[in-house]
Structure prediction request, 246 residues.
Amino acid sequence: MNLTPRERLIVALDVDSAQKARALVNDLNQLAGMFKVGSYLFTAAGPDVVREIVSSGGQVFLDLKFHDIPNTVASAAAAATRLGVRMLNVHAAGGAEMMRRTVDAVFEVAEKERIQRPWVIAVTVLTSADAVTLKEVGVLNPPEAQVTALAKLAAASGMDGVVASPREVALIRSSVKMPEFLVITPGIRPSDSPLGDQKRVMTPAEALKIGADFIVVGRPITEAPNPAEAARLIIADMEKAAQAPA
Ligand code: C5P
Prediction:
């Protein structure tokens, strides 16, 4: 996908109020390609925070990881489409029918109501889950095999891409042979930034070089003394990857 480094930067607004989100959006509106609204901010501030970002010209990735019966997920995704989001996600573990009906509902509402069709993205295995977590819930596949199986199922069900840790990008690219299949990677840290609770991280440039389309960055920007400056440094790092020979 032909995007500028800036367009590839998704800033995670993991804050607890519309006021804090607004301050970050104002600071970063010329720098972030997209703002990620997850379950924390959405539960605290509601859909108005999404409407506000969209009406100020920002693009939103609604990261609510829907996982429910097909009818409910499809309806929730249609409602997210009406909010004007650019990207939304569901758990691939919800199954092929859930994903297919979601993609269909999003297409239908976008076409009928003449609104932009958001990309529908699948979550495979959460990066917080390991083999023990999977076994607890009855999944006997090791995490890599499960990521591969769910990424393939997502692609076959019409999803636009997956969220994956940077160390899974190569695995996904080799199991889903569709260059336009989007890979979105959190777990990104500039080389001088604290890890927080992220364990396996890559720098912005490294993630792009191995084939990620978008990177998600939260605390290294939102908790920086000067978020705009932190975002500029990250974009400069991403530009290095864009200039490096393939
Ligand atoms: O602050 P930090 O850069 O670690 O934020 C990463 C964002 O990406 C958070 O919103 C987190 O919930 C999200 N995320 C993640 N790992 C995943 C999926 C989502 O860190 N596997």
